[in-house]
Design brief:
The chain is an alpha/beta fold. It has one domain (5-171): Rossmann fold (3-Layer(aba) Sandwich), CATH 3.40.50. It has helices at 21-34, 58-69, 80-84, 90-100, 124-130, 157-163, 175-183, 194-203, and strands at 8-14, 38-43, 75-77, 105-111, 132-136, 165-166. Helix 2 (58-69) packs antiparallel against helix 8 (194-203) and helix 4 runs parallel beside helix 5. Mean pLDDT is 92; it is low at 1-5.
């Protein structure tokens, strides 16, 4: 890594309900593509744009994340949204992180399905000035390439966002699929880290 890499921090937010290998591959891809010193996994307290399906407690989601990233010094779990409580808005999280890491450059990691909805985020124009958004193409999305007009944002943001778009071979796995398989008594082996699979079984999570 270059000498400035220590100040380049990735942000990966979500419900992590539960964390799966797709999340970990996405974080690793961001580290490699944007020369990040580390990625912060930030589980939300309450997502602002969707009703969580079968959302387990913050304590369980934090514990599964800690188990998933144990031993990987590039990854860290942050509880700032859990501690803040209420609806988890990215703008509040980024402002808080800039106070914690005042000399750092923040990279907000999202999937390509989120990019066209970014204009709906709270205080998005202020948010775009505070951090750099990096987008990774989701597997199985065979749509036409995104165009600036698709993002419904004022210049120069559409062009800048699309410059930081990466098409990568990510694993096609979702938390909803993991929950479905658990509810149906199916195996989730290889979809989540073994430590997460064991935690879910130990605590009886996501079963009918």
């Amino acid at each position: 890594m270059n000498s400035g890499a220590v100040n380049r921090i990735g942000i990966l937010g979500g419900t992590f309900n539960p964390v799966h290998i797709g999340h970990l591959i996405l974080a690793q891809s961001a580290v490699e593509a944007f020369d990040l010193a580390k990625v912060l996994f930030i589980p939300c307290a309450q997502p602002p744009h969707k009703e969580p399906a079968g959302l387990v407690t913050a304590e369980h989601r934090m514990a599964m994340l800690e188990a998933a990233i144990e031993g990987d010094l590039r990854f860290e779990v942050s509880d700032i949204e859990i501690k803040r409580g209420g609806t988890s808005y990215a703008i509040a999280t980024v402002r808080q992180l800039l106070r914690i890491y005042p000399q750092s450059k923040l990279f907000f990691i999202i999937g390509s399905d989120t990019l066209p909805e970014l204009h709906l985020w709270k205080d998005v124009n202020a948010l775009l000035k505070l951090c750099t958004f990096v987008t990774f193409g989701r597997p199985g999305q065979n749509h036409r390439p995104l165009q600036p007009d698709d993002l419904h944002l004022d210049p120069p943001w559409p062009e800048q966002l699309l410059r930081n778009y990466q098409e990568l071979r990510l694993v096609d796995v979702s938390s909803s699929d993991v929950r479905y398989r658990l509810a149906e008594g199916m195996s989730i082996r290889y979809l989540v880290p073994l430590s997460v699979e064991m935690y879910i079984a130990e605590h009886g999570l996501y079963v009918k």
